[in-house]
Design brief:
Length: 153
C-alpha cells in the first residue's frame, strides 16, 4: 500500500465524518443508523492504522498519516448521538426517502477512495448516481454551500 492509498482513504473518511456530524444535528441524532455508521467509521480507522503499521512507507509520511488518523478518530468519536437510539423510519419520524442517510453516507467513501475504472463506469446505474447526488445536495444544503452540487461521474 502506498502513501497515496492512505491519504485517499483519509480524504474519504473526512467527508463521511463531516456528513455524519451534520446528520447528528438533525433527526439522525436519535437514529440507530447514525450510531452504526459512526461505529463503522471508527473501526475503519482502526483497520487503517493497523495497515499503516504493516507498511514500509517512509517514516515522515507514516507520522503525518498517523496524526491524520488520530484527528479523524477524535472527530468520529465526537459525533453526538442520543443514548436511546432507534430507527427513526420505524418510529415514523424520518420521512427522507426510502434509505437511511447515515448508513448511505458510508457509500460516499467508496466514491472518493475507489473511483470506478473506465469499464466499470458503464455499470454504475442512474439510480446510484441519483442517490449519491441527493446525499451530496443534502450535505451542501446543510453546510450552506452556495456552489451547485457536483456532477457524479
Amino acid at each position: 500500500m502506498s502513501t497515496t492509498y492512505f491519504k485517499n482513504q483519509l480524504r474519504g473518511n473526512d467527508v463521511v465524518v463531516a456528513t455524519l456530524q451534520a446528520f447528528s444535528k438533525d433527526i439522525c441524532r436519535r437514529c440507530i443508523g447514525l450510531s452504526g455508521a459512526q461505529t463503522k467509521v471508527i473501526k475503519g480507522l482502526k483497520k487503517l492504522r493497523m495497515d499503516l503499521d504493516k507498511t514500509s512507507i517512509p517514516d515522515d509520511d507514516k507520522r503525518e498519516i498517523m496524526t491524520h488518523i488520530d484527528t479523524s478518530e477524535k472527530s468520529a468519536n465526537s459525533i453526538e448521538i442520543e443514548e436511546e437510539c432507534e430507527c427513526q423510519k420505524t418510529a415514523g419520524n424520518c420521512k427522507i426517502g426510502p434509505g437511511c442517510l447515515a448508513l448511505g453516507a458510508l457509500e460516499l467513501i467508496k466514491e472518493i477512495t475507489e473511483p470506478p475504472l473506465e469499464a466499470k463506469k458503464e455499470e454504475v446505474s442512474k439510480a446510484e448516481k441519483g442517490e449519491v447526488s441527493k446525499v451530496a445536495k443534502l450535505v451542501c444544503e446543510k453546510c450552506g454551500a452556495e456552489e451547485p452540487v457536483p456532477i457524479v461521474h
